[in-house]
């Protein structure tokens, strides 16, 4: 897997070379990245992702989903911190809600360019876009949001190639 492929969202998070990410503050989106939107548990191959990342980084789970208790529970179950914020991505003020870290470099891993990617850009972080985790039960509204996000990401990536 090349860095270009990783940035294009070609792979699920569990297919990335996570060992190459070290000495960073890593903010991992929950919904659509580790689990399908609203799913209550991290299962299968996604389970090892947080364990691998936390061995060399300060890892924080974050989600724009309204269920903060689920976020806190999943973070605790997997030995990582979570960002407890009333703000939503891409608001860069979310950084004020992250506990201090020994690392200064930041990485945001997520499935949506318009929230996770823009958030990464606004906080000066590297963005790693991953293939979206879905369970086939997404609402029509969420499917439209995903389609628009993918179209915007494709368009922005195409413009970057020509500039």
From TrEMBL:
From which organism does this entry originate?
Candidatus Kaiserbacteria bacterium RIFCSPHIGHO2_01_FULL_53_29
Tell me what this protein is called. HAD family hydrolase
Gene3D superfamilies per the record? Answer: HAD superfamily/HAD-like (3.40.50.1000)
